[in-house]
DNA sequence: TGAGTTTCTGGACGCGGTCTAATAACGACT
DNA sequence: AGTCGTTATTAGACCGCGTCCAGAAACTCA
């Protein structure tokens, strides 16, 4: 935690934040699709390869504000009491994840969807994140259910619940400045799904 | 429907089927990721550009058997009686779409997921299809609901229901040769979601 | 000063995808 | 037969993302 420790080796000339800001400027000026990695790197004052040292791909920039929120799901699920009903635990964990998201941080992914040309990249990177968290949620449900239920259910729960949450995030992003907190939308979308699965589990 | 009428102009030297078969061979030999568009075109005896005359992208090949099934959703929704409860109509339409899928046609998309290197392309193309049908379903639900319900619900229904259906398709594909019909899995996955939303609509 | 470590950089490559201009193969019409 | 319009195919070039590698730069420590 002591940022004065200069570890060892050559110090970093750049940082994730620097590149994010350079990218944000360019996205506003000319949209995501028309911005190349070279331009981002140039504006940040580094070489193109350095960009890929900080981000695995250009599309990662679309999710800079969302990734850390999404990643909380595993921890929130683990924090749920063992004796709680499965779908109750799932619902509350997801709503808590949504509540932990900073109010004003709307990722590029949810705003630049309809901007023509962004769709391809966006959808590529979006489903990857979706699938990753689906794996986490499916494992949780599968463990809680044991081998009693129909084999399709854990995966169906994961896809449906996170699908509803994703829909809520989309609506939230498009609601504009006067919007309610993200967790409100997510709760409204996720509750019916959880209630439905609770009946058959 | 008369396939002898070549309309007008230069006749096609190739066809979608030819390219699909060439691709299928190569996918089996060396996986999807290690197969280039050049190789597919070469094996089919055409140039690389001709490939893009028949397919918009390499990843379209992953869904050759699924696309026509997925596209049926709009028609099946339109075929539902107007006086039927919304979620009942949605559920039945989706199950009918699944039932219309040929038993043995398992798309590459659902089998080559875990093959390392395929994921990126697969997820890119998968979410595009998912979003397209979500748009169709959301419009249907939105029209049936009018402006009475909470604004997040139509989108949440679309994402959750189709998410469950996608999960079912994945389980179906991985179930191997002894699997039950796709519609069975889809029904089991979609029913709870529809029941849950039916309570709040 | 030198050794070790980490970051940055330039250059090259492969691949997917787009574009353009040219050509080939057909039917139809004169 | 020859020409015209139409459509499919083709070669060629181009762009951008992502990967790889070898080497240089900047620092710490001994």
From TrEMBL, chains A, B:
DNA-binding region, residues: 36-55
Stored InterPro entries: Homeodomain-like_sf (IPR009057), HTH-type_TetR-like_transc_reg (IPR050109), HTH_TetR (IPR001647), MftR_C (IPR041347)
Transmembrane segments: 152-173
Single GO molecular function: transcription cis-regulatory region binding
Keywords in alphabetical order: DNA-binding, Membrane, Transcription, Transcription regulation, Transmembrane, Transmembrane helix
HTH tetR-type domain boundaries: 13-73
SUPFAM superfamilies reported for this sequence: Homeodomain-like
Name recorded for this polypeptide: Transcriptional regulator, TetR family
Source organism (scientific name): Mycetocola miduiensis
């Amino acid at each position: 935690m002591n940022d004065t420790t200069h570890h060892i080796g050559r110090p970093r000339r750049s940082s994730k934040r620097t590149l994010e800001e350079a990218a944000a400027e360019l996205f506003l000026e000319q949209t995501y699709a028309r911005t190349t990695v070279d331009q981002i790197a140039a504006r940040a004052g580094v070489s193109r390869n350095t960009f890929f040292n900080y981000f695995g791909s250009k599309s990662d920039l679309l999710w800079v504000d969302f990734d850390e929120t999404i990643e909380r799901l595993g921890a929130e699920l683990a924090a749920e009491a063992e004796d709680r009903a499965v779908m109750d635990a799932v619902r509350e964990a997801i709503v808590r994840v949504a509540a932990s998201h900073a109010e004003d941080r709307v990722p590029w992914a949810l705003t630049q969807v309809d901007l023509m040309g962004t769709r391809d990249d966006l959808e590529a990177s979006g489903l990857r994140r979706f699938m990753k968290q689906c794996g986490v949620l499916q494992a949780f449900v599968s463990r809680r259910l044991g081998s009693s239920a129909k084999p399709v259910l854990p995966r169906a729960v994961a896809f449906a619940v996170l699908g509803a949450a994703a829909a809520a995030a989309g609506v939230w992003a498009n609601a504009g400045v006067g919007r309610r907190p993200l967790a409100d939308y997510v709760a409204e979308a996720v509750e019916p799904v959880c209630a439905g699965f609770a009946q058959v589990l």
